[in-house]
């Protein structure tokens, strides 16, 4: 019997995955949400089709035996928690803060109007549709919530497809859906507490609301820091596979248990855990995609398939139930569209904009199904009423994408909005904006402290997690002294943190704290760097003393260190003619950036602009042309040079940094750069390609510049490349020059 039960369980999973994934793929190809395909797949496997055509076969596979049913229900219930975790991770509270008051107006009316309609409808439903007619208030709360929440996932899908994600209206729509979703799960939490008490009682209700408020306050203060710390600790400490995902699941489980202990549903804990996990600065796209893949591939088809199995569309052959279902669809659509439309108009939107908002908010999808499933499991909703709600969710969700596409298609983009969207699209190509974590390697030398200062400028505005590896006494591998970390070590750490906080304040960003971890190392070698690099870093920023030999080549120790890091490498060096004094970037200083049209040069420009932004330092962009008589206006080479400089100027506009551009001819690149430095540049930022070979080498131009200038030089190198790739990059640089 045990083997048979296990076999049936596997058969149920396989059928739900096969049918759900197959229909989801078909639906998505026709512009509909894949979730609806999975839900309808479950409906078809239930009594609506499979059970109608072959009742014995349907009952054999999807047995009503309590033990058998409990196995698949357990997977489905876990799926609910994981879906709410994923929904929380997709909830961008920063977007809500950016958009402003309009989304709150839309959310309030968009929830209140349909909620009131649903609650009122429950009071007039026939007794046969309620398991316990005495609990109409609780049933009304469930029905009102089901009618009032929008599906963020489905709304975002259509908004993204229409290229409205960065448009003003698109951000208002997404923010409104996020707020509605959050309000909805808070209502469900309170409703669950009421349902647990069996009736609406004032004192238990006040207690439940107070406990939920305390839970939310704890979660978004102390809880947020705990989650950040746990995710970073697991990422940095564990060597086993998927350790971070395990910790995230544990966080979700603990928070779900907390909400369960205070008498509200576990979904609230899972949802809040998702929000905190999604805001974690250490959560990489790679880790998030792994978790999303697990949920999307297994638990989502199983949960929505099981929800569909619980719906029996054959009951709609009853004319009364069919009419009630149509009335439910009409009330849900009119209430939701009308509430969001009114909110849009109150926020000052035009008729077309308010229509688009109302159309977007009318998508129910996954959230209504989850709410209805909870109500069904608590015996608050009957199977017939559950079927009606699922039918309403399917119809309104399938109708929403074409409605929203039509509404958004009627909205032209204004000039100011187009400029902002173009700037943000340009920012997506930025090197610094794509960094998730910074590894900083410094010593106590002036160059090391200056490098820590630069790291603070880069990481401060976004709160980028930064790990500082401080070398004792400025010694490289194999040369460590025997002195402990002294005052200079503390100064390096404090300097980086102080610089980062200053940037955060200057840019008026919402960074709670600088995520800086500092360690003192006895030595730095390929092994120690590689061990740290496994934790996931987008850039290694190194500033060390005595990294250049008397011959102008890089030391073997620096070569050893760089070989342990496969990603982009940034070296802060002092020019051979420098006096050792490091500059302080301000509005009166200038950063020189040579460009030549290559990707590494553009990265350097982006890096320099990020350094210049906090203190409005000027940036001079220099293009060195090798044409003998210069490029004639209108020539191919001249147009290319102008295009390269315009691209950097557009990027500077996005950063809000003033730039000067110049084209120099009749000089080698190193001489042209040295002449510009002599005019008063505080530092040089160069994009270089790390050449393969026995020695650490970035090209003749970089070597010559280091030998000729009297200021710090930042070499931003690409990832280590094969010889063919290096040759191609060199050729591109030569052609562009």
UniProtKB/TrEMBL annotation:
UniProt KW keywords: Ion transport, Membrane, Transmembrane, Transmembrane helix, Transport
UniProt entry tagged with the keyword Ion transport: yes
InterPro entries: Cation/H_exchanger_TM, CPA2_transporter, Na+/solute_symporter_sf, Universal_stress_UspA, UspA
GO (cellular component) term, any one: membrane
Comp. bias intervals (Basic and acidic residues): 484-494
Protein family: Belongs to the universal stress protein A family.
Protein name: Potassium transporter
Lineage: Bacteria, Pseudomonadati, Pseudomonadota, Alphaproteobacteria, Hyphomicrobiales
């Amino acid at each position: 019997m045990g083997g048979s039960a296990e076999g049936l369980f596997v058969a149920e999973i396989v059928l739900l995955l096969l049918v759900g994934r197959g229909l989801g793929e078909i639906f998505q190809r026709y512009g509909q949400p894949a979730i609806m395909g999975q839900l309808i797949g479950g409906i078809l496997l239930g009594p609506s089709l499979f059970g109608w055509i072959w009742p014995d076969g349907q009952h054999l596979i999807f047995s009503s035996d309590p033990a058998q049913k409990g196995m698949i229900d357990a997977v489905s219930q876990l799926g609910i928690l994981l879906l709410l975790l994923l929904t929380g991770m997709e909830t961008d509270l920063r977007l809500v803060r950016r958009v402003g008051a309009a989304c709150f107006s839309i959310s309030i009316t968009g929830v209140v109007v349909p909620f009131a309609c649903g609650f009122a409808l429950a009071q007039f439903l026939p007794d046969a549709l309620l398991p316990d007619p005495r609990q109409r208030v609780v049933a009304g709360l469930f029905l009102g919530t089901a009618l009032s929440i929008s599906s963020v996932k489905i709304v975002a899908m259509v908004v993204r497809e229409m290229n409205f994600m960065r448009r003003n209206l698109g951000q208002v729509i997404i923010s409104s859906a996020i707020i509605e979703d959050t309000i909805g799960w808070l209502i469900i939490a309170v409703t669950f507490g009421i349902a647990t008490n069996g009736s609406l009682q004032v004192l238990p209700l006040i207690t439940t609301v107070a406990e939920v408020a305390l839970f939310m306050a704890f979660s978004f203060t102390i809880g947020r820091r705990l989650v950040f710390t746990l995710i970073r600790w697991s990422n940095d400490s564990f060597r086993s596979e998927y350790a971070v995902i395990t910790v995230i699941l544990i966080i979700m489980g603990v928070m779900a248990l907390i909400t369960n202990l205070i008498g509200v549903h576990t979904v609230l804990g899972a949802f809040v855990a998702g929000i905190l996990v999604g805001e974690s600065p250490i959560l990489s796209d790679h880790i998030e995609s792994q978790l999303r893949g697990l949920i999307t591939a297994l638990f989502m088809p199983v949960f929505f398939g099981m929800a569909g199995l619980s719906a029996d569309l054959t009951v709609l052959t009853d004319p009364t139930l069919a009419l009630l279902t149509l009335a439910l669809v009409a009330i849900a659509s009119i209430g939701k569209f009308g509430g969001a439309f009114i909110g849009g108009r109150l926020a000052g939107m035009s008729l077309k904009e308010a229509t688009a908002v109302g159309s977007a908010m009318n998508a129910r999808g996954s959230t209504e199904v989850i709410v209805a499933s909870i109500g069904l499991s608590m015996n608050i909703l009957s199977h017939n009423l559950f079927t009606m709600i699922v039918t309403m969710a399917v119809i309104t969700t399938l109708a929403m994408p074409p409605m929203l596409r039509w509404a958004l298609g009627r909205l032209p983009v204004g000039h100011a909005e187009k400029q902002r969207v173009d700037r943000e699209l340009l920012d997506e190509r930025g090197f610094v904006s794509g960094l998730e974590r910074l590894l900083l390697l410094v010593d106590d030398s002036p160059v090391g402290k200056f490098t820590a200062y630069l790291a603070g400028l880069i990481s401060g505005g976004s709160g980028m997690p930064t790990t500082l590896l401080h070398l004792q006494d400025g010694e490289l591998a194999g040369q460590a002294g025997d002195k402990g970390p002294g005052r200079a070590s503390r100064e390096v750490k404090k300097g980086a943190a102080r610089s980062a906080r200053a940037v955060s304040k200057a840019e008026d960003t919402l960074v709670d704290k600088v995520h800086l971890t500092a360690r003192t190392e006895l030595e730095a070698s390929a092994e120690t760097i590689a061990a740290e690099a496994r934790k996931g870093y987008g850039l290694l920023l190194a500033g060390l003393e005595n990294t250049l030999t008397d011959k102008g080549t890089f030391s073997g120790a620096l070569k050893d260190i760089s070989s342990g890091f496969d990603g982009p490498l940034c070296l802060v060096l002092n020019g051979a003619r420098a006096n050792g004094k490091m500059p302080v970037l301000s509005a009166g200083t200038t950063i020189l950036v040579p460009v030549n049209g290559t990707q590494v040069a553009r990265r350097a420009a982006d890096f320099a602009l990020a350094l210049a932004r906090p203190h409005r330092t000027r940036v001079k962009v220099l293009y060195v042309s090798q044409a003998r008589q210069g490029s004639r206006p209108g020539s191919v080479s001249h147009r290319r040079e102008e295009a390269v400089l315009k691209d950097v100027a557009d990027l500077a506009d996005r950063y809000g940094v003033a730039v000067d551009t110049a084209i120099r001819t009749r000089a080698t690149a190193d001489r042209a750069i040295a002449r510009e430095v002599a005019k008063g540049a505080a530092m040089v930022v160069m994009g270089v390609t790390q050449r393969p070979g026995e020695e650490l080498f970035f090209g003749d131009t970089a070597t010559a510049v280091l030998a000729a200038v009297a200021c710090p030089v930042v070499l931003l190198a690409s990832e280590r490349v094969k010889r063919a790739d290096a040759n191609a990059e060199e050729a591109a640089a030569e052609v562009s020059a």
